[in-house]
Amino acid sequence: MKKKGVRMKTNLHRIAMGLIAVVSVASCNSTKYLAEDEKLYNKGHVVIHPQDSIPKERKEAFEVYLEEILRPKPNKKILGMRFKLGLYNMGGGSDSASGAINRWLRKQGEEPVLLSDVNREYNENLLRNRMENFGFFNAYVTSDTTIDGKLAEVTYNAFPGKIYRIAKVDFEVDSTKQLGKDILSTKPQSLLHVGSNYNLDVILNERDRIDNDLKNKGYYYFSPDHLLAEVDSSKGNYEVDMYLKMKPETPERAKEPQKIGNIFIYPNFQQTTQGFQTTRPRPQQLYNNQYYIIDPQDTYRKKVLANHIFFNKGDTYTRWEHNRTISHLVNLNAFKFVKNTFVDNPDSANTMDVYYHLTPMQRKSIRFEVIGKTASVYNGTEANANWTLRNAFKGFETLTVSVFGGYETQTGGSVNLNSAYIRYGTEVGIVWPRLLSPYKWAPSRRYIPKTYAKVGYEFLNRRNAYTLNSLTMNYGYNWREDDQKQHDLAVAEIIYVQPRNISDDYRAQMDTVPTLRHIVDPQFSFGPNYSYTFTNSMEATRKHTFYVKTGLNTSGNVLGLIQGANYDEGAKEIFGTPYAQFIKAEADFRHYMKLSSTSQLASRLMVGLSHSYGNSRSLPYLKQYFTGGPNGLRAYRPRAVGPGSALPENIGENNFFADQTGDFKLELNTEYRAQIAGMLHWAAFIDAGNIWLQREDENKPGGKLSKDFYKELAVGAGVGLRLDLDFLIIRTDFAMPIRVPYRDPGDRWVFKYIDFRDSQWRRENLVFNLAIGYPF
Fold it and tell me: Where is the Bacterial surface antigen (D15) domain (predicted)?
């Protein structure tokens, strides 16, 4: 059976390689079905003349930008080969009389893009127009075709000339009218500056800016198209005068601010083929003399719903309140569709009635997931079931109940007491879309603050070693300050872990490897936990973006002070279990530098600090730091580094025990990322870091943090491939250690030992990681 299985695997491998080879050959022979007078369009180039007309770095970027707008696009390439065109040719090219397989291949492929498909005059005009939009008013373009066998390329020679700059900006509006005054009041924030280059995109953005400001002053019917920018380039000296005016055909209602009239809310709306139908509200449906809430079944508490409507009757319309209301209604996690309509009030001029048609989500839902896991010699699976109840108590609360179970077993290597396990558990959580607090505070009215409460239980059975019963409870608040800043305050975080059924074999090993004892220590920690996150990485136009997450966690501080806890005199207990007393702080800094449109440099610095005192000698096991693995030091396996220069421990003969933990952590990573072709990317990286102990441990000499900590950094390097599917990133990394902290101080750099030809060296030093998503 084994031989047969090996043969089958080999045959599949040969078939796959054969298919790849066939497609590659077809890709290389991409001109196979071209007629004698046809040429395959290979590429369009743009070259700016004269070479010194624009600074070199801007010139190259401008050429790339102009090449992107050329039409048509040549056939796509992957690793230099036209795979899709190859599939098309494998299917017989333009021969439509072939069989079903050939028709399928042609459908998956791509027809050849020919030189005859290229309209050079159209592209010349397109390039000239785009350069004029950037202020090169005297630009012109010529083009040439180069033919090499059956391949053809077109070179566009662009002559932009000298750029025109803004000499004067005037807002020519009627300052006696309210609209004119409101437009003039926006001028100090204008995007049009004297001395700046003429740029059509900036002019369009300026119109949008003025329109947005007017929208927040009530001009609901105003539009950017009602503004006209006239440009006078006749003054010479490559300068222009700009005049911003209002078009004479602007309708009268666009010139008047609008007031809010009646407000109608339909929270159980179901769209019909007739569109958004309404029913005439009854007087008793008027809530707080402000809102008509048409909810005959009382599905939602009116007060809670009204708190997320930011218009009041008689208010002046503002886009800010308009968007804020829509954002809140969408983020209540209760409505599938949110439709907002403004209708002129028939009884009052310049007044609009507001309609909110809200289509509810399904109130109850269930999701089931099965996950397969494989890592080295370990394999297992896990199943999760999640039940969700929306609007649980008529106040838009979300109640979730999750149950999970899984197992992992060792399928190779030496027997390890800590290798196989089964685990199962449950978690119940509820989220309120508001702050439940005795103190009145509103961190931000733009975003919905949330209060959460969670209770979870887990049973872990490492069958040959021990069992653990874990109980966790959390209560806290989560809120956003703005688009970039988020806060999470767990007012109470309780973790209680109780070991049971410790086997005799495991107890015997605890004397040899004290780390094993720490794993099965009873654990009880309680206290507040706060984290702050800042990121501007969503701003795609920035060259430098950042992500910062900091956190502070404490446990047992007040109670320890009250009881006078002192570990040396005997740990104090609650419910028969010693409680942890510590302060823990950590920070994660990330920097992303865009090098080009297809490459970037990503770097990360992680710092973890802690101080255990009173009732504790070190952090509890679940709170300790570790490093290594696919998202840390990729040249080392998870939990296989440190602390400090301590030598990793072994259980049994040559059976490495990877569970190194500590009280301090430092990690530095930098990674160059670039696109190869399409969705295929690659990366080269260097990782460095380690963990350390707060106090000396005779079983881990060299593990305590000292002033020479930087001499104990582990360093690894490697390369990897990434498959970017937009919705999912599949990552592979090959890494190897280049500095090993537990070697002799003068022999920690291991470059001289690298030998890729040695199978033993490869087995002990090359680490392969398969993961989902980027490491940072």
Answer: 404-751
Instruction: Give Cα 278 to chain centroid, integer Å.
Output: 40
Packed helices 2-28 and 83-90: angle between N→C axes, nearest 10 degrees = 100
- Cβ(428)–Cβ(462) below 8 Å: no
Domain regions of the chain by residue span: 34-74+113-159, 165-254, 259-360
Alpha carbons 684 and 634: distance in angstroms, whole number: 12
Which DSSP string do the residues of 13-54 spell out, in sequence order? Answer: HHHHHHHHHHHHHHHHTTTTT--TT--EEEEEEEEESSTTSS
> What is the 3-state composition of the chain as percent helix, strand, coil, each rounded to the nearest 5?
20, 40, 40
Q: The tokens 């500095």 sit on which residue? A: 739
Same fold, 165-254 and 259-360: yes
pLDDT in tens, 544-569: 999 999 999 999 888 887 888 787 77
DSSP class per residue in 433-480 = SS---SS---S-SSS--EEEEEEEEEEEEETTTEEEEEEEEEEEEEEE
Would strands 286-287 and 291-293 be described as parallel, antiparallel, or unpaired? Answer: antiparallel
Task: Judge: domain 165-254, CATH 3.40.50.
Answer: no
pTM of the model as a whole: 0.78
* Two tokens, residue 283: 């007087």
Asked if CATH classification 3.10.20.310 holds for the domain at 259-360, the reply, yes or no, is yes
d(CA 189, CA 197): 17
Reported as half-sphere exposure (CB side, CA atoms, 13 A), residue 513 has a value of 22
pLDDT for res 96: 62
Under-50 pLDDT residues of the chain: 1-17, 19, 376, 413-415, 652-654
- pLDDT at position 415: 47
pLDDT of 378 = 56
Q: What confidence tens digit (pLDDT) does each residue in 433-490 have?
A: 999 988 777 777 789 999 999 999 999 998 778 899 999 999 999 999 888 999 999 9
Considering the segment(s) 34-74+113-159 as one domain, its CATH architecture is: Roll (3.10)
